[in-house]
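7915_t:CDS:1, Paraglomus occultum. C-alpha cells?
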Amino acid sequence: YLENWAKNGVLLLNAALTVRAHDAGSHSKKGWEEFTDAAINYLNEKKSGLVFILWGGHAHKKGKRIDKQKHLVLKAPHPSPLSARGGFFECRHWSQANAYLKNGVQETASASDKDAVEQVPPEEEKAGMGETANANENNAVEQ
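C-alpha cells:
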C-alpha cells in the first residue's frame, strides 16, 4: 500500500527482491545483487538530486556506488525491531529528505499512506518524503 509514494517518485528497493518467509537474507547471493546494483547505477548516472535512504548494513554497502556530489545519501540502522533503537528512530530521514528536496531539487511526497506512516517515527510522520531511492536491508525491495 505504498502506491501514493510510487506516484510521487519514491522507489523502495531492497538488496534482494524475494525472501523465504521468516528467513531474512535467504535469497541473497541469488542474482538479485546484479539487478539492484544496475538499478542504483542507472539512477546514479542518469538522474541528479535524488535522495538515497540506506537502512542497514547491506544497504550501506550499496551506497558506495552513489555519487554524493549529485545526490543526498542518508544512512541509519535497519528499522527492524532488533536494531531500530540503535539510531533508526532518531535518524529523521523524512525531514532531511524533504529539506533537501525543498531546496528546489524535487517536489516532496506525502507520507500519508497508512501502512507506510505506521513504520515512521511520530516526529517524522508529518515530514513526508520526496523522490527517493530508499535502501532497506532485508525488506520486500532492496534499497
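The chain has one domain: 3-136.
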